[in-house]
Design brief:
Length: about 375
């Protein structure tokens, strides 16, 4: 079983993760393509396995949940020729296990069994070619999709169905699902309207869990984009959010330090994907399913950092203008003291800062102000009256 060795078995609540990335599809195109596979008009991807490995690297090196540490990590990757994985991931994999139907079904069942405890946490990320066969569906194609020796949709997984199949009494109370794939309606969709041709799914159990949001990288019948040879826009947005772009400050009532709430995560990922796609001249809309509640996806072991950029207007005031930044408006917590270079660029701990500006004639005084510096970046312009 392709489960990464995380050290000695830990007893008690834990986080169980399943990560799948399929870029290579031998039966869709090329010399080994099947007649059925070619009907979909798809070729190998260059970013799905890479993006999945980026998520694996984050889970291994950055994920932190003190009440439910990472307890298991199942990884299935099918990179295309020339596709590179995130640094250090290949060395941690126990074997080169492709994201085939058989392997995915085996690991999905093992993941489901590991999550049969409400105090546990579930984390799922799946990337690959995606199609849509029903109005709300999200089907991801696995490496052996189109295998002529199997029924038509044997090499596909119904992510909405699997998500629903773990939303029931007795499963991990907090689950987070991310599906990084297109949701295009293929020309042959009419043949499979009732999904009876072998697609992998799970039966829906009774009851429901406390929190199980599902974030789909694209809206119904839309595309999901990526940088050729790089990462998908969705994975870039997701990891940026988890690394601080979706961070929220400490909450004394819940004894939480800096953390990433599930609701804010979804909002930030959606905004970031839209912005990244716009730069490419495209449109991509993330679609959330389910209610995130007050669940926390990730916590920070220390205060996250913010890249602060302050410019000055007018630029002619730079020679005699200095600025100080005081965390919590406390003199003892001064992080920038009388800096005079403009624009000012610093990396500071996140938090509420008082910005104090000192000017010299002929420029007037600038009132101190309190601003929240939130990860990952804060930009502002200080206007000096003349």
């Amino acid at each position: 079983m392709p489960e990464i060795d995380l050290g000695p078995t830990r007893h008690g609540p834990g986080t169980h993760a399943l990560v799948i990335g399929a870029s290579h599809y031998p039966f869709l195109s090329g010399p080994t393509a099947s007649e059925f596979g070619e009907r979909f008009g798809l070729v190998d991807l260059t970013s799905a396995a890479r993006s999945a490995s980026d998520v694996v690297a984050w889970l291994l090196n950055e994920y932190w949940n003190p009440t439910a540490p990472l307890a298991s990590l199942r990884v299935l990757l099918s990179p295309s020729d020339g596709e590179t994985l995130a640094e250090g991931v290949a060395e941690r994999l126990p074997a080169s296990v492709a994201a085939s139907r058989e392997a995915v079904e085996r690991d999905l069942m093992a993941f489901r069994d590991a999550c049969r405890e409400p105090s546990n946490v579930g984390f799922v990320y799946v990337a690959g070619h995606g199609i849509q066969l029903t109005k709300r569906g999200a089907i991801v194609l696995l490496e052996d999709f189109g295998d002529p020796g199997r029924v038509e949709l044997y090499g596909a997984i119904d992510m909405v169905g699997c998500h629903a199949g773990m939303d029931g009494t007795g499963y991990a109370s907090n689950q987070f699902w991310f599906v990084d794939a297109c949701r295009q309606l293929p020309a042959v969709a009419r043949l499979f309207e009732e999904l009876q041709a072998g697609v992998l799914s799970l039966p829906v159990p009774p009851g429901e869990v406390e929190c199980s949001p599902l974030y789909l990288a694209s809206a119904s019948r839309d595309l999901a984009f990526a940088e050729i040879g790089g990462s998908t826009l969705f994975s870039r947005a997701l990891l940026s959010a988890l690394r601080g772009a979706a961070a929220a400050g400490p909450e004394a009532a819940r004894a939480l330090g800096w953390h990433v709430p599930a609701g804010r995560l979804g909002d930030v990922v959606k905004e970031t994907v839209r912005a990244l796609a716009s730069v490419m001249g495209e449109e991509q809309s993330v679609q959330p399913i389910g209610w995130p509640g007050r669940a926390v996806v990730h916590q920070f072991q220390s205060t996250p950092e913010v890249r602060v950029i302050l410019s000055l207007e007018p630029a002619a005031a730079a020679a005699g203008t200095t600025v100080s930044l005081l965390l919590d408006a406390d003199e003892a917590k001064t992080k920038v003291d009388q800096a005079a270079e403009w624009p000012l660029e610093r990396t500071l701990p996140a938090g509420a800062y008082q910005i104090r500006v000192q000017t010299q004639p002929p420029y007037g005084a600038v009132e101190p102000r309190l601003v929240p510096l939130m990860p990952l970046e804060y930009k502002d312009e200080i206007r000096v009256p003349s």
